[in-house]
Write a structure and sequence with these properties.
4 helices; alpha+beta; 121 residues; 2 domains; 43% helix
Length: 121
């Protein structure tokens, strides 16, 4: 299994990606840069993310999801939100646009809400 890395390990790679995207002149060139970046991350294996813990409660799915099974090979957006949070509500149109722009076979959004709001008082 690949070693676990911190977000600080992503910073140099992210900076290189940002620079390359800024210098790119066409949409096709930008897409190629992003695909190469994602392939580099996948091939290195150094930035592997742990799978979800067993025993989590899942809503709006047929069962538990796994980064290594159902979500493997997809771009996964982890969305942490609270129903009453105004900033969380403001991001919803952007998430909707992301889902509409990219095929659901490529992009999956996994939402994580505050447990406190899911429990009855």
């Amino acid at each position: 299994m690949a070693s676990q890395s911190s977000l600080s390990d992503l910073f140099p790679l992210q900076t290189q990606l940002d620079t390359a995207l800024t210098e790119a002149t066409t949409q096709t060139e930008k897409e190629k840069i992003v695909y190469e970046y994602l392939n580099k991350l996948e091939e290195s294996g150094d930035l592997k993310i742990s799978d979800f813990q067993p025993g989590l409660e899942w809503l709006n799915t047929e069962g538990p999801l796994s980064l290594e099974k159902e979500l493997s090979g997809k771009v996964v957006v982890l969305d942490f939100f609270t129903y009453c949070c105004i900033n969380c509500m403001h991001i919803l149109p952007d998430l909707h646009r992301l889902e509409n722009t990219h095929s659901v076979t490529v992009t999956q959004r996994v939402g994580n809400s505050s447990r406190r709001l899911l429990q009855a008082p």
